Amino acid sequence: MSDPDDSERLARLDERIAKLRARDAPRPHQQESYSQAQLAWRMVIELVAGLAIGFGMGYGLDSLAGTMPVFLVLFTLLGLAAGIRTMMRSAREVEQRDAGTTRETGATPEDAPEGAKEKRVENGD
Questions:
Q1: Which of 31, 54, 61, 83 has the fewest other C-beta atoms within 10 Å?
Q2: 26 falls in which pLDDT band (50, 70, 90)?
């Protein structure tokens, strides 16, 4: 018959094996790319929204003042600048969130998935 100590050791060993397997289990690739696509669409929408709002305000002011291209061009450029600024703020927010995640887990940039390493090399980081 088996000792109670042996069954206890086997249970602990099973727990350790399960933890290691869970840690080394590959993450679904689809979720990662989905979040990246979602982020890209968010940035595109922010840029286009800034342009559209600036265009609308400029066109409205030009219609009221009777000076057709002046306010249209000015507010479209201001809308573009606002869209880019909002887009950059979103990118910085995501970057800080990702940096906080790697700090919490203790992961280093070398622990990143293979695709992320290749992207960093392409970007010159």
A1: 31
A2: confident
| DSSP code string of 91-123 | HHHHHHHHHHHHHHHT--GGGS-HHHHHHHHHH
Q: Give the whole-angstrom CA distance, residue 50 versus residue 123.
A: 27
Map out the domains of the chain as residue ranges. 36-104
> Do the Cβ atoms of 55 and 79 come closer than 8 Å?
yes
Sequence letter at residue 84: I
Residue 52 has a CB neighbour count (10 Å cut-off) of: 13
Cβ-based neighbours of 107, under 8 Å, separated by 6 or more: 101
- 113's tokens: 């998935």
Please give the share of the chain, as a percent, with pLDDT higher than 90.
44
